[in-house]
Amino acid sequence: MEKTGYDPGTPCWVDLTTPDIDGAARFYSELFGWEVIDQGSEYGGYRMCQLRGKPVAGMGPQQQPGMPPTWTSYVAVADANVTTKAVTAAGGQVYVEPMEVPGTGTMAIYADPGGAVFGGWQPGPFTGAALVNEPGTLSWNELVTRHPDAAADFYHAVFGWSANRQPMDGIEYTTWQLGDSPIAGMLPMDERWPAEAPPFWVIYFAVSGTDDIVASATRLGGTVMQEPTDVPVGRFAVVTDPAGAAFGVITLNRE
Questions:
Q1: What residues contact 107, with CB distance under 8 A and at least 6 apart?
Q2: Could you give the CA distance from residue 237 to residue 229 in angstroms, rounded to a whole number?
Q3: How far, CA to CA in Å, does 140 sit from each of 44, 51, 219, 237?
Q4: Lower CB density within 10 Å: C or N end of the chain?
Q5: CA–CA distance, 27 with 208 (Å, rounded to integer)
Q6: What is the distance between the alpha carbons of residues 212 and 189, in angstroms, rounded to a whole number?
Q7: DSSP result, 129-183
Q8: CA-based torsion, 232, 244, 134, 74: positive or negative
């Protein structure tokens, strides 16, 4: 599905920070069919990942040695400075103050009170992913946290999200809603999670066949964290790329 813009409070973009950007470009290009384009030295080696000539994700080199490779979710905001103040007031942390990306927009990096990291994106000419919810593109963003009640208060205060909770496979799953639109999810951590595992946001890419993609990811040097599993909305799995960055894939049920 093509997108030309995002309402404030809606996840709009994802990018990868990795110590091996050339290896990541090879891995994701073969896995999803992306064309990975270097944006030049003025953008610090950042690369745009395209499908059918349209941007679907980004990737950039690691700026701080020793930090784990990770995918980051960005939420569209009307004013990054206002969002930064809201994050602080609601008990979150500001890791990167609002920073203009020349000719593109303004970014900031935050953490919620539980420590889950996410970004804010104030669009300029660039609004975010131009394709979503089709194979090889972003399909879902999900917070995994030990503190669902505190998270519900925080994200409501910052973005106006409401938490729609319902039982799913023995847990209480939350669908974040902006107005009447479901825009993200939340999964509570329980005793099955390692005690040292921190809260985090995980992204899911849509795929046409979860099992085939998992097999391809393994062949390309990735590892499987969650084997393909059926849930009410489809079949998902969680894998890592060769550098260790985790992401999900999902084949959605079609009614």
A1: 74, 80, 96, 98, 99, 101, 119, 120, 121, 122
A2: 6
A3: 28, 18, 25, 13
A4: C
A5: 18
A6: 28
A7: -SB-SSTTSEEEEEEEES-HHHHHHHHHHHH--EEEEEEETTEEEEEEEETTEEE
A8: positive
Structure tokens, 177: 């809603």
Helix axes 21-32, 210-219, angle to 10 degrees: 150
CA angle (2 as vertex; 140, 130 as ends), nearest 5: 75
Amino acid letter, 233: V
36 DSSP assignment? E
> Please, how many CA atoms are within 13 Å of residue 43, restricted to the half-sphere of its CB?
16
Q: Which residue has the tokens 């969650």?
A: 226
The one-digit pLDDT tens for each residue of the chain (255 residues) are 999 999 999 999 999 999 999 999 999 999 999 999 998 887 888 999 999 999 999 999 987 777 889 999 999 999 999 999 999 999 999 999 999 998 899 999 999 999 999 999 999 999 999 999 999 999 999 999 999 999 999 999 999 999 999 887 778 899 999 999 999 999 998 887 888 888 999 999 999 999 999 999 999 999 999 999 998 889 999 999 999 999 999 999 875
Side chain identity at residue 153, one-letter code: D
In the block, residue with structure tokens 């990795």: 18
Work out the widest C-alpha separation in the chain, in whole angstroms: 49
Sign of CA dihedral 144, 147, 148, 151: negative
